[in-house]
Amino acid sequence: MRSGSTPRVRARISRRRWGSSGARCPRISPPDGDAGIRDQAERIRGFRDVVGPDFWLMLDCWMSQDVNFAVKLAHALAPSGVKWLEESFPAAQYEDYAELKRRMPPGMMVAAGEHHGNLSAFRTLSGTGIDILQPDVGWCGGITSLLEIAAVAKSRGQLVVPHGSSVYSHHAVITFTNAPFGEFLMTSPAADRLRPQFDPILIGEPVPVDGRISRQTLTRPGFGVELNRDCPLERPFTH
């Protein structure tokens, strides 16, 4: 975690009036060293004091670590009840994911999948034994592939939390028995309001209220949204 990102994260985590079930914290990587791990552990302890014992705290590592660093980080964060480490390694480093899973502290999970692009990749990722698969419905092959990936995960006792894809995964999340919740991306620059992920391109895109998406939203035709025909669009290249 870089110091410049701390205020935004602290603000996001402290606003429990939104009803969120958890929040992800920015990454640190091997160049931060042992001192970085100690600083991160201290920050997470502070976040835990703010949000209480039941709020999920997770760490998005964004493919920036190696196995030894990720293991040391996981054990440093375990006393604060961090739920998972996400995407510690680049997508194709399956052996690293398997090794990290073997060396994780009890109760902390390993999550990955945002940058895996097809069913075959998810079968291999699932085979590493990690706990949570995170397909992005826009990148993994659409709704059909999302259903197939969820089935693979369910057959191995794994959870599915689709990468923030807003309305394009809401229906799937509420029907999957192995999807504990959906991800909502914080896109407002100051993290001071809940802004629709695809704003202003879509009309009717819901945001959570007290941590939940309105049931009425999911009864509309299709994905429940329309294109904003008044949205100014431009093509930067003429060809």
What distance lies between the first and last C-alpha atoms, to the nearest angstrom?
A: 40 Å
Question: Any guess at the CATH architecture of the domain at 1-112?
Answer: Alpha-Beta Barrel
* Low-pLDDT regions: 1-18
Strand tally:
8
Largest sheet: 6 strands, parallel
Specify the structural class. Answer: alpha/beta
Q: Summarize the amount of helix as a percent range.
A: 25-40%
Series of H and E elements: HEHEHEHEHEHEHEE
Overall pLDDT level: 89
CA-based gyration radius: 18 Å
Question: What is the CATH topology assignment of the domain at 1-112?
Answer: TIM Barrel
CATH H-level homologous superfamily name of the domain at 1-112: Enolase-like C-terminal domain
Broad CATH class of the domain at 1-112: Alpha Beta
Q: How many helical stretches?
A: 7
Reading side by side through the largest sheet, how are the strands ordered? 1-2-3-4-5-6
Strand residue percentage: 5-15%
Shape by Cα distribution: globular
For the structure shown, list the relevant keywords.
7 helices, 33% helix, alpha/beta, 239 residues, two-stranded antiparallel sheet, globular
Describe the structure.
- The chain has 239 residues and is an alpha/beta fold.
- It has a domain at 1-112: Alpha-Beta Barrel (TIM Barrel).
- The chain has seven helices and eight strands, in the order H-E-H-E-H-E-H-E-H-E-H-E-H-E-E.
- It has a six-stranded parallel beta sheet. A two-stranded antiparallel sheet has the order 7-8.
- Helix 2 links the parallel strand 1 (22-25) and strand 2 (56-60).
- Helix 2 packs parallel to helix 3 and helix 3 packs parallel to helix 4.
- The longest helix is centred in the first third of the chain and has 19 residues, at 33-51.
- It is globular.
- The N and C termini lie far apart (40 Å).
